[in-house]
Amino acid sequence: MSLRQKITDIRHTLAFRLTLWYAGIFMLSACVAFFFFYLLIASVMRQQTDQALSSEVRTFSSILSTQGPEAVRRQAFIQAQAAGEKKIFFRLLYITGQVFSSSNMSYWRDIGINRAAVNRLLDGRVPIFDTINIPDRKHKIRVLYAVIGPGMILQLGQSMENHTRIIEVFRKVFITTMVILFALAVVVGWFMARRALVGVETVTRTARRISEGSLEKRVPVKNRADEIDQLALTFNQMLDRIENLVTGIKEMSDNIAHDLKSPITRIRGIAEVSLTTGSSLQEYKSMAAGTIEECDRLLDMINTMLIISRTEAGVNQLDCQKLDIANLVRDACDIFQSPAEDKGLTLVCNGPENISINGDLRLIQRMVANLLDNAIKYTPANGKIDVSVAGGTDPSVRIVVQDNGRGIAGKDLEHIFERFYRCDPSRSQAGTGLGLSFARAVARAHNGDIAVISTPDEGSIFTVTLPKNPPSLAG
Ligand code: ADP
């Protein structure tokens, strides 16, 4: 990568922009602080000059009152010579503005008498200060007009040389400090921006590694509960979900390959036998009927698998509506009453008249049917099945299906909700191993869950909990 390209890349980084902002704000604050400091120094210095001039005026005023105008003139000469004739000057004026005496004015000849100031002085009797800027002169001059006695005005001027010198020093200090501060602001800003963005870079690096194929990688969380940790946590949660989905898809495709093989083989077998041995129309008809039956089973299995996967992935939008769950369970028991009786089982349904919940009618109907179907399938003759609905006043309802059938072994309990899992003794029974995983997917899609308690040879209790108004579905 060329140097130019590298510089362009850096210019586009967030760290670079943050550094610029930081340095900019830092410099602006420093400028504002310097500006106020400058105003303060300038005002203090002017006050000092004005105080010095005012004190001179008081001295002259007392000399005039005690020793007369001649003494004032002498004092003015002495004062000007002592301070330096280029630093200070005096003019004594009548109230008409006419000069009757002055110190050596050869250096100050450009400074005249400000008539307006004299008039203002005579109007208000308070000393008037004036700042004069003479072109080509480096330093400004502060001039004071004051009445020092009856009919006598003093014009007193002082070069603001010290003032200018201090301001110059101040300017140099300002420029040097600003250069140092700018360099410091850039270094500190860059360091801080890099530190702040290091977490983002970690997330980016992880994302890059994941895009190269390592889905199991996670962004380290520092437990500082800052924004970067929140980002890392959210990112990791997203990865967990993606990983689950990918694993689910992988499992499903493995299962499809494995579990759909047998029905397809059966269908092929029926067709082959009919082709090789079949001779009558009746035989062909029964082959067609067998094929349709197997195909229906196959389609049902594929559909169930699709519903489970979509419901688990949250892709299936639930068709939620207000439904009476007590009534739904009663209806299901009515439908399963006759298969239960056929097998010599007692099916009892208990529960209140009605309990309303918000849910997907078709999915919940099918979930309840799966549980009843299992209870009938895995309970031997003369057994009893109790179905109940409870929780009329609670935020959730519970549907309990209890049987005194053959129960489930401890080692199987943790697997029965997995897709295609069938306990060994059940393999002789018809079934796909999808009924309970369907039930769990539906319960969880409604923000509920399903639990089982079972003892081999004593029976099983399946409990489905469904919130009446699932938070994520409310509204
Ligand atoms: P299927 O019933 O089609 O085999 P399910 O997913 O509904 O699939 O059930 C998984 C397994 O859990 C069943 O194969 C069975 O071994 C066990 N099982 C489910 N319900 C019961 C029950 N009420 N009593 C005993 N075993 C059960």
Written account of the structure:
Helices cover 57% and strands 17% of the residues. By secondary structure, the protein is α+β, with helices and mostly antiparallel strands. Strands 2-1-5-4-3 form a five-stranded antiparallel β-sheet, with helices on both faces. A five-stranded mixed β-sheet has the order 7-9-10-12-11, with helices on one face. Helix 2 (14-67) runs antiparallel to helix 5 (161-211). The two termini are 55 Å apart. The structure holds adenosine-5'-diphosphate (ADP). The site of adenosine-5'-diphosphate has 22 residues, from helix 10 and helix 12. Residues 370, 374-375, 378, 403, 405-408, 416, 421-423, 426, 431-437, 460 line the site of adenosine-5'-diphosphate (ADP).
Q: Any ligands, ions or cofactors bound here, and which?
A: adenosine-5'-diphosphate
Calculate Rg over CA atoms.
50 Å
- Across the major sheet, the strand order is 2-1-5-4-3
Helix content: 55-70%
Biggest beta sheet summary: 5 strands, antiparallel
* Fraction of residues in β-strands: 15-25%
- Write down the overall mean pLDDT: 86
Per DSSP, the total helix count is 12
- Low-confidence sequence ranges: none
* Quantity of strands, as a count: 12
Order of helices and strands: HHHEEHEEEHHHHEHEEHEEHHEE
Distance between the termini: 55 Å
Q: What class, by secondary structure content?
A: alpha+beta
Quick one: overall form? Answer: rod-shaped
